[in-house]
Each structure stands twice: as C-alpha cells, then as structure tokens.
Design a protein that fits this description.
It is a single chain. This protein has 346 residues and is of the alpha/beta class. The protein folds into two domains: 220 residues, Rossmann fold (3-Layer(aba) Sandwich), CATH 3.40.50.300; 98 residues, no CATH class. The chain is 33% helix and 23% strand. It contains 13 helices and twelve strands. The strands form two sheets. An eight-stranded mixed beta sheet has the order 6-7-8-3-9-10-12-11, with helices on both faces. Strands 2-1-4-5 form a four-stranded antiparallel beta sheet, with helices on one face. Bound molecules: adenosine-5'-triphosphate and magnesium ion (MG). Adenosine-5'-triphosphate binds next to β1, β2 and α1.
Length: 346
C-alpha cells in the first residue's frame, strides 16, 4: 500500500499551571493513498491533538517535543508558517466539529467557498465563483447559483456543514481531515453527511482521516481503524479486524459501549476514568480500568504485537506467555449487528 502521509514518533506536550501534560505519547501511523482511516477513542485520548499537529494548528501552550510528519517526502514540522499556509486548504484540508464556528457569519457563502482558490491559485474572481457554485452543487446545496450571495444563517445546520465541506474540498486536497464532522448534527443529517463524504471521496480520490466517538459511523465509512487511549495508539487494523477480532481490552470496552442500531444511547460505559497525563504512570495506561490486566501491565509499556500483517495491538495479553483470555461474550453476541454496519456486511 502506498502511503501519502507518515506520522513518526510524535510527542506533543502542553504547558499548564498544574504541570506538563503529555497529550500525545509516541504516536506513529501511516495514511494510505485513497483510504479512509478512522481514529477512535474516548474524550481526551488525543485524537484532535494528533490531527491538529499535522495541520500545525495547535494551541499556543503546545510543544511538539519530537516526531516527524512526512508528506511528499518532506517533514511538515520543519515547514515555515508561510509554507504551511500553502499546504492547508490546498494539499491537506480539515473540517472541524462545529460548522457554526467554522463559517464567517458576515461573509456570503459564495465568497467563503471561493476563498481558498483565490488564496492558493491564480484563478480570476469570476472563475472562482463558478467553481464555488460547482462545488456547492457537488455537496448537495440546492439552487447553489441563486444562493451564492446568501449568508450562513440562511442555511440549516446540515446545509452549513455541507458548505464547510465545500470549502475544504474546493482546492482538491490530497488529504481531508474530518474531526467529528457530524457530532453537532441530528442522526438523519449525520448519515447524509457521511454518505456525502463517501461519495466525494470516490469522485475526488482523496485520502481521509475521520475522527469520531461513534464506532457505528466508523463501521460504515472506514477502511482502517486506529484506537487511541491516553495519548497513544493501542490497536490498529483493517475495519473488519477491529470489529471482528479485537485484541485490546480497551477496544473491547469501546465496542461494548457502542450504541445499538435501534437504541441510539450508550448501554455500557467503560468503568473508571482515563489517567492524568501529567506524569502518567508506567505500563499500559488502561491497566487500572482493565479487568484482564496482568501484573506486567502496571510496570511496563506493552509493545505492539502482530496479529496479522495489517493488525497490531499493544497489550501484554498477546504475549506468548500470557494466559489465554477471550473477548467478553457481550461483544461476540453483537457481531451480527456489527456485520450489518460494516462494509463487509454489504
Ligand atoms: N491547550 C491545551 N492545554 C492543555 N491540555 C490540552 C490542551 N489541548 C488539549 N489538551 C489535552 O490533551 C489531551 C488530548 O486532547 P484532544 O483534544 O486531542 O482529545 P480528543 O481525543 O480529541 O477528545 P474529544 O473526543 O473530547 O474531542 C487531553 O487530555 C486534553 O486535556
Ligand atoms: Mg477532539
């Protein structure tokens, strides 16, 4: 698989009054060309900080302590702000969680959608507006031509998110990063936006990093999945491997707490809370919440064990000397339901 982006040994800290927060701890992964890679994990696990590091849009108290982000053979972390500005919106675009705050209420949508083209290319204003209309049509805004001078407040929440997507894709980026793009929307609109992203990806052949809490969404859109906990990736693999052969007890917990098809509420939460990332304890950060934890989990960070050529998990349970443990029956019982959701079930 050809990769388009490589994140290597990324460590990100935040300076706070309470101490240094080790938010991202040695994260490495690759984004393959044309794939949708989902990053999942509980709140605070480091999903947003990971992708904001790629875009270099971190808060001011952030420090990228180490790592490389390789795109087109070059390390983005070594780029000047000016060069990075060229990358953003042109090579790599990002859609944020809240469509309200990512649109300018005082600017017509035509201007906002055309803006990336005017910044990054030598296209004329008239051509840029034509392209904006085309892109708005592509994302499903009806009567785009007539509505080009309207303002954000004249559109519904779902339409606004479509406009945000139009801004992100108008420059035909290689990579689209979507950080919880549907959380602020109601369920029906959510699935429309997901379908739209799938459709656009097919048409524009982009690679997508998709962040979400919702494993149900992941099943429908992702080719591969990365599971994050306490600033680390703890398991990654193809979507079917994560749903049907998960190995890390934290992944089991996430799958177990997935809302069901009919009841869109969480049934089982993972007991306990994530660790404090100021001076994190040694070992597997999940150990205190892990009913299957071994003594070594509290002492030593588990390495990645290979489950298959595409599937790896960092848990001592995969050590050849570990006792045999199987996933909770509740997850196994839900695999039929997962089948309906995943691409494999199609
Ligand atoms: N500016 C900051 N100062 C201090 N700590 C921060 C800052 N920004 C993020 N963090 C910490 O970094 C960790 C990772 O945060 P991040 O926003 O990446 O989580 P997330 O996985 O995106 O969560 P969510 O699902 O809630 O969006 C958290 O512990 C968070 O408190
Ligand atoms: Mg986030």
């Amino acid at each position: 698989m050809e990769s388009i982006l490589k994140v290597k040994d990324l460590c990100v800290n935040f300076a706070t009054y309470a101490g240094t927060v080790n938010a991202i701890r040695d994260v490495s992964f690759e984004l393959h060309k044309g794939e949708t890679l989902a990053i999942v994990g509980e709140s605070g696990s480091g999903k947003s900080v990971t992708v904001r590091s790629i875009m270099q849009l971190l808060d001011r108290n952030a420090d990228i302590a180490s790592g490389e982000i390789i795109y087109n053979g070059q390390d983005l972390l070594k780029y000047s702000e000016k060069k990075m500005n060229d990358v953003r919106g042109h090579d790599i675009s990002m859609i944020f969680q809240d469509p309200m705050t990512s649109l300018d209420p005082t600017m017509s949508i035509g201007k906002q959608v055309a803006e990336p083209l005017l910044i990054h290319t030598k296209i004329s204003k008239k051509e840029a507006i034509e392209k904006a209309i085309e892109t708005l049509q592509l994302v499903g805004i009806d009567n785009a031509r007539e509505r080009i001078n309207d303002y954000p407040h004249q559109f519904s929440g779902g339409q606004r998110q479509r406009i945000v997507i139009a801004i992100a894709i108008i420059g035909s980026p290689d990579i689209l990063i979507a950080d919880e793009p549907t959380t602020a929307l109601d369920v029906t609109v959510q699935s429309q936006i997901i379908d739209l992203l799938k459709d656009i990806q097919k048409k524009l052949k982009m690679s997508i990093i998709f962040i979400t809490h919702d494993l149900g969404v992941v099943a429908g859109i992702a080719d591969r999945v990365e599971v994050m906990y306490a600033g680390k990736i703890i398991e990654y693999g193809e979507v079917n491997e994560i749903f049907f052969n998960p190995k890390h007890p934290y992944t089991w917990g996430l799958l177990d707490s997935m809302p069901t098809l009919n009841v869109k509420e969480r049934l089982n939460y993972i007991p306990g809370t994530p660790p404090d990332l100021i001076d994190p304890a040694p070992g597997d950060a999940f150990a205190p919440r892990n009913e299957f934890a071994l003594d070594i989990d509290f002492e030593q960070m588990p390495p990645f064990f290979e489950v298959s050529k595409t599937h790896f998990a960092a848990t001592w349970l995969l050590d050849p000397n570990a006792p045999k443990v199987t996933p909770p029956a509740s997850i196994v019982a839900r695999q039929k339901e997962f089948k309906k959701l995943t691409k494999a079930g199609e």
